[in-house]
Amino acid sequence: MSKPGDRAEVVERTGEEAALVALLEAPSTEEATRNLLARLGRLIDARYAVLWTLDEAAELLRWAAHWVAEPGVEALANASQRLSFPRAQGVPGRTWDAGRVVWIPDVLDPQSHFVRSQSAAEVNLNAVAAIPIYGRQSFLGVVELFVEQAPEEPPALHTLNTIGQILGAYLERRRVEQRLAASEDLRTAMVNASLDCVITIDCDSRIIDFNPAAERTFGHSREYAVGSSIADLIIPPEYRAAHYSAIARVCEGGKSRLLDRRIELEAMRGDGVRFPVELTLTRIDRPEKPLFVGFLRDITERQQTQKSLAQLLQREQEARVRAEQAEQRARRIAATLQRSLLPPVLPAIAGLDIAAGFHAGGEGTEVGGDFYDIFATGPHSWSWVIGDVCGKGAEAASLTALARYTIRAATIHEPEPSDVLRVLNDALLREQPASGFLTAIMGRLDLSGSSARMSVAIGGHPPLLILRADGEVEGIGPSGTLLGAIPEPKLVDSEVVLERGDTVVAYTDGVIEARVGDGRLELEGLIEVLRGRKGARATEIGRAIEEAAVGTVRRATDDDVAFLIIRLRDDQPV
After folding, report:
1. How many other C-beta atoms lie within 10 A of the C-beta of residue 449?
2. What is the rounded CA–CA span in Å between residue 247 and residue 231?
3. CA 489 to chain centre
4. CATH of residue 172
5. Of 464, 409, 407, 398, which Cα lies nearest the Cα of 432?
6. Cα 187 from Cα 200, distance rounded (Å)
7. Cβ neighbours of residue 524 under 8 Å, at least 6 residues apart?
8. Do 65 and 153 fall into the same domain?
């Protein structure tokens, strides 16, 4: 007579044997999984079984397979296939979290938290057992077994766990096999899809593998190449002996400088044509003799491109040198011509402190249109002018020369600055009728008295500024009409009395239009510069204007910058 423990052992042994038989008899993974689910189900008279497997990336249990003992559970099956469970949620998730068999004796019990309770109850499946499935190292999934009612004496948990372990081992083995197969398929696909030639050889230099890129590059089919000597197939005759010697040395344990390095050498196609290739040779160690995998790339086009690029770079460098030389010549010519349009030196005038400056705008390769001049017109009389010609280059230079010499000639006969500018206007209209425009300020200084008197006329130019000895800045106007535009320009003479320490500041529009930060210097900015130079010498004021308009590092400006500064010295009489 058998004892109760004997029956449990028989059930356990029978369940394990049935599970192993289910694996051995299955023709496929799917069939084997269903057989194991059936064996587990019949062990507790289940009518429906579901396998949930772990999606490691999403950390979710997903439906993988099921077994149905008899029709009629389609609603429950459909509900199951649409679900997934995170850890500790739902019966599968709670089983995963608990790591042991979980029994739900009544799916309708609210405490069971069984999300498919309605679908299960409708087909009279009122209880469920959930079994965790483990591999050797990790959790793989959960099997749910649905029964009409929980048995009064459930089968030994050890039996269910044991069969679950058998299923886990099987699933783990199949997963490893699938990964290996996928890895091999991926390797093969990568080699076949590679744009580089991939050729594998043994220690006898016999070709073991020859990918499609190698077929296209060397003109040999894989069927023809495999088994052939790589030396006879793609290496030019004069290099074959060296190849055999190097392979033999490495196969006998020697070292080679060719391994795992990119080298360029010559190869040979099936029609005998030679061409350059880039080769990387890698050794694959095995228990028997090693294999060698060569990655080759036809670099004919690359070498031609490099050669063409080198030639192009050389031509570009030569052109750059010629351009730089031409620019330097243009700068020298422009600087020489510019100097000829400005006074070579400023005159030394008793009682006056004079400074002037000019900086070409743009690249400095064209003659600018800004000019200034100061010259004697009597024993105690001096005339000065500052102007800005429209445009740059030879035409502007010609107009500047015309303006300077016309002004000097006109001052001999015309006593007032406005009359001199009218003579200049007539000359511009006569000599340059199309585009001979300029702006100018003409001034005449009378130094015969105890204080200086100055008359000024402005033809469309920015206002003249007077920095008084007390630091106040005055503007002199009106601005008048652009010269060279109309026959009768509006020109007015303004009289100014200058005392010791007063400074006359004349400038072109390049000064106030100079870029400063996000804006421009503007007239207000220039006035602030002057106010900060109370009592300064003319050269100091000039340096301050240069720094504000051009900068200490000579930043590029859009327009020419010119200024003329005349200061009545306060340390000697006029």
Report:
1. 10
2. 11
3. 57
4. 3.30.450.40
5. 398
6. 14
7. none
8. yes
In the structure encoding, which two tokens stand for residue 275, read together? 């061409």
**Are the CB atoms for 250 and 208 separated by under 8 Å?**
no
Q: What is the DSSP letter of 156?
A: P
Three-state secondary structure string covering 56-119: CCCCEEEEEEEEECCCCCHHHHHHHHCCEECCCCHHHHHHHHHCCCEEECCCCCHHHCCCCHHH
CA dihedral angle for residue 146, residue 149, residue 151, residue 155, rounded to 10 degrees: 0
- The mean pLDDT of 500-519, rounded to a whole number, is 91
CB 507 within 8 A of CB 545: yes
What's the CA gap between 443 and 504, in Å, rounded? 10
With contact defined as beta carbons under 8 Å apart, do 443 and 387 qualify? no
User: Could you tell me the pTM of the whole model?
Assistant: 0.47
Distance of CA 232 to the CA centre of its chain: 48
Look at the chain and report how many structural domains it folds into.
3
- Which token pair is 239? 């290099």
Q: How far apart are CA 409 and CA 431, in angstroms?
A: 16
Give residue-wise pLDDT tens across range 526-535.
999 999 899 9
The residues that bridge with 266 in the sheet, in sequence order, are 276
pLDDT, tens digit, 9 for 90 and up, residues 468-497: 999 999 999 888 999 998 999 999 999 999
83 and 142 together in one domain: yes
The answer to whether 107 and 120 have CB atoms below 8 angstroms apart is yes
Residue 333 lies in a domain: no
Which residue range(s) make up the domain with 433?
Answer: 342-568
Task: State whether 158 and 210 are in the same domain.
Answer: no
How far is the C-alpha of 204 from the C-alpha of 192, rounded, in Å? 24
Cα–Cα distances in Å, from 158 out to 154, 155, 229?
Answer: 11, 8, 61
Backbone angles phi, psi at 544, to 5 degrees: -65, -40
> Do 175 and 233 sit in the same domain of this protein?
no
Measured CA to CA, the distance from residue 455 to residue 417 in angstroms comes to: 7
Given 152, 181, 210, which residue is the final one in a domain? 181
